[in-house]
């Protein structure tokens, strides 16, 4: 037992290296990992048997073993011979433990590659010796640098198919070192190899005597990876509040940085309340000290209100708090990122509402050139300004992955649509504060003897929105009510005359009008907004600006054929002729409301009757 115990202790003490393999399609990433697992004798007998059987059924190497099949587990990948998902594998040697993520090479799966890179310490970037650096090589290297990986191995693969040409290898290595240097990656090791034949994989290859560096495995076993985050002090994002009984209240989470001990002074952010650590609790008992990477439950000496999403930090060096940031964003959604559209942002353990207020530029990840952009498409990277609906504690990503990285989530279907890294807080946000006003909305409403409301008319062009809104305002004015109509065409003559009809401009069009409508309701008015407003996301954004019950979505429900037959302005005819681009209902979509407060059928009833119904609804309140 002593020998076994000694072996287990040595195994537990071994360092863990997380690395990814990436590069262009068919550069040999899966083959490299498969051969690494096989030749390092880390496969069980049944795994070897299954590999031999799968190689006969699905392999691409004739009678030889197809090592890529160890990693390409998805049926679609085996049929196409490519990697689609991120495949994770664990293996170890006598010197180190490893978790490797095999990332897809196709451009459309760049978002998957970013997922694998987000937790890696090192990247192995493969290139085919016959092809050299390709656009996807540059794209993956850019994302590696963006996600803070500072140790890279350039694996120049398939040297056997390039005649083991030393000059070719050195030319590719020099070109890649220049690329890495331009992206701030200082530690680059270049290794010539053949993953399929095993050259320079585990041991030095006699077929490349001119190369005197380490093999790939030797480098992975010995490379010194500095995992220490910037010296920012203790940070514990609270994952949940642990309250098993009335006598215990602890805060659970994984320490993101620094160390902590009982008695240390801490602050709970964003509230700023202060206390001291009373205990550090684990399943194995209390600890005298805990550090980065440990999952713990801490208790505080004082009764402080803290919950999931808060950060417990060293009181002497707390993180900053802000609600506006400059950040890099990698877009992962099939629909484009549009400034002004509302999303959920998750940072650490906290979720808040967010908008991209401005895309400063898009980055061409092939050339690193900065390009003007109004939106981001799938797999594009942009440098953006973000606005959150509440301030959050954060760190720059360069100092802390845990508190400097975030994801963006679609509010409609909760799909992850973006990932980003915080650069810095926008300082101008700290100079703006709400000015208290003695006369409030309630006072303005009382003097007008009415309840302020926003009626948001939405529907196709020609549906009858403006006609009905105009009739409602006439009737309310005759009854002594104070109103205002915000009409889509009229607003584009002034406030929004700088906007076109692209999806990005439509989002900004609605954002501005919604803010104006909110101010008018605050002034005590009944405001009637008549806009096509084709996207549900923007209508939800507008609704969120108002108090409960102040916003009524009115769907003027008119079939496209009927609206087009009316075509009083001749717009549909121009759109059909190709003279008007991005016209709703023709070459731009209209997303009908799913749960509007009022639905008006303009085919079944006359505009006057529909207007009277709305007036009656308002007067009933």
Might you state the CATH topology name of the largest domain?
A: Rossmann fold
Secondary structure: helix percent: 25-40%
List segments where confidence is low: pLDDT < 50 over at least 5 consecutive residues: 72-85
Mean pLDDT comes to 85
Shape: flat
How many DSSP H or I helices?
A: 17
* N- and C-termini, Cα separation: 81 Å
Assess the beta-strand content as a share of residues.
25-35%
The number of domains? 4
Strand tally: 28
What is the CATH C-level name of the largest domain? Alpha Beta
Query: Sheet bearing the most strands, described?
Result: 8 strands, antiparallel
Concise description?
The chain has 621 residues and is an alpha/beta fold.
What are the SSEs and their pairings?
Layout (H helix, E strand, L loop, with lengths): L1 H12 L1 E9 L5 H11 L5 H14 L16 H6 L6 E6 L3 E7 L7 H8 L4 E7 L6 H12 L4 E7 L8 H17 L4 E6 L23 H7 L12 E3 L2 E6 L2 E7 L4 E2 L4 E5 L3 E10 L2 E2 L3 E2 L3 E6 L10 E4 L5 E12 L10 E6 L2 E15 L4 E3 L9 E14 L6 H4 E6 L5 E10 L15 H8 L4 E6 L6 H14 L4 E5 H4 L11 H20 L3 E5 L5 H9 L6 E7 L2 H7 L4 H6 L21 E4 L5 H14 L1
Parallel strand pairs: 1-3, 1-4, 4-5, 5-6, 24-26, 24-27, 25-26, 27-28
Antiparallel strand pairs: 2-3, 7-16, 8-9, 9-15, 10-14, 11-12, 11-16, 12-13, 12-15, 17-21, 17-23, 18-19, 18-22, 19-20, 19-21, 22-23
Helix pairs in contact: 5-6, 11-17, 13-14
């Amino acid at each position: 037992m002593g020998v076994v115990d000694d072996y287990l202790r040595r195994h537990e003490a071994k360092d863990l290296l997380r690395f990814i393999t990436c590069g262009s399609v068919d550069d040999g990433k899966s083959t490299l990992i498969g051969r690494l697992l096989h030749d390092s004798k880390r496969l069980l007998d049944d795994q070897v048997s299954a590999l031999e059987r799968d190689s006969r059924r699905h392999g691409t190497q004739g009678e030889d073993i197809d090592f890529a099949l160890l990693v390409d587990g998805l049926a679609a990948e085996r049929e196409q011979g490519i990697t689609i998902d991120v495949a994770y594998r664990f293996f170890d040697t006598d010197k180190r433990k490893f978790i490797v993520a095999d990332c897809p090479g196709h451009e459309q799966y760049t978002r998957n590659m970013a997922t694998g890179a987000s937790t890696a310490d090192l990247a192995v970037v493969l290139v085919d010796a016959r092809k050299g650096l390709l656009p996807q090589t540059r794209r993956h290297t850019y994302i590696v640098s963006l996600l803070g990986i500072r140790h890279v191995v350039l694996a120049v693969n398939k040297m056997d198919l390039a005649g083991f040409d030393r000059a070719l290898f050195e030319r590719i290595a020099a070109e890649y070192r220049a690329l890495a240097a331009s992206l701030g990656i200082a530690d680059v090791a270049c290794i010539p190899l053949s993953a399929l034949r095993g050259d320079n994989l585990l041991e030095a290859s006699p077929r490349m005597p001119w190369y005197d560096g380490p093999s790939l495995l030797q480098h992975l076993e010995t490379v010194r990876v500095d995992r220490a985050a910037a010296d920012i002090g203790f940070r514990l994002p609270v994952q949940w509040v642990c309250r098993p009984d009335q006598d215990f209240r602890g805060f659970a989470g994984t320490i993101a940085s620094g160390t902590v001990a009982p008695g240390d002074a801490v602050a709970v952010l964003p509230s700023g309340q202060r206390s001291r650590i009373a205990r550090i609790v684990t399943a194995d008992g209390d600890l005298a000290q805990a550090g980065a990477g440990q999952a713990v439950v801490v208790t505080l000496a004082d009764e402080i209100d803290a919950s999931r999403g808060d950060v417990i930090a060293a009181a002497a060096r707390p993180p900053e708090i802000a609600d506006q940031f400059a950040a890099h964003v990698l877009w992962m959604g099939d629909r484009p990122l549009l400034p002004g559209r509302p999303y959920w942002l998750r940072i650490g353990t906290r979720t808040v509402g967010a908008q991209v207020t401005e895309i400063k530029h898009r980055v061409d990840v092939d050339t690193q050139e900065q390009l003007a952009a109004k939106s981001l498409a799938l797999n594009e990277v942009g440098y953006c300004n973000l606005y959150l609906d509440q301030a959050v504690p954060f760190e720059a990503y360069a100092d802390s992955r845990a508190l400097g990285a975030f994801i963006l989530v679609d509010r409609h279907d909760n799909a992850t649509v973006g990932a980003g890294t915080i650069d810095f807080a926008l300082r101008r946000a700290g100079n703006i504060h709400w000015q208290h006003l003695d006369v409030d909305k309630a006072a303005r409403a009382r003097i007008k003897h009415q309840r302020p409301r926003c009626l948001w008319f939405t529907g196709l062009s020609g549906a009858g929105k403006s006609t009905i809104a105009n009739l409602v305002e006439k009737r309310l004015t005759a009854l002594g009510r104070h109103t205002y109509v915000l009409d889509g065409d009229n607003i584009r003559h002034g406030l929004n005359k700088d906007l076109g009809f692209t999806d990005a401009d439509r989002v900004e069009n609605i954002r501005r009008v919604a803010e104006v409508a909110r101010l008018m309701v605050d002034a005590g008015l009944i405001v009637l907004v008549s806009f096509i407003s084709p996207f549900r996301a923007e209508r939800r954004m507008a609704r969120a600006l108002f108090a409960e019950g102040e916003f009524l979505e009115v769907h003027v429900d008119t079939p496209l054929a009927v609206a087009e037959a009316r075509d009083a302005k001749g717009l549909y005819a121009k759109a059909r002729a190709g003279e008007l681009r991005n016209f709703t209902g023709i070459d731009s979509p209209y997303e009908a409301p799913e749960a509007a407060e009022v639905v008006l059928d303009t085919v079944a009833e006359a505009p006057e009757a529909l207007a009277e119904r709305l007036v009656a609804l308002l007067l009933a309140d």
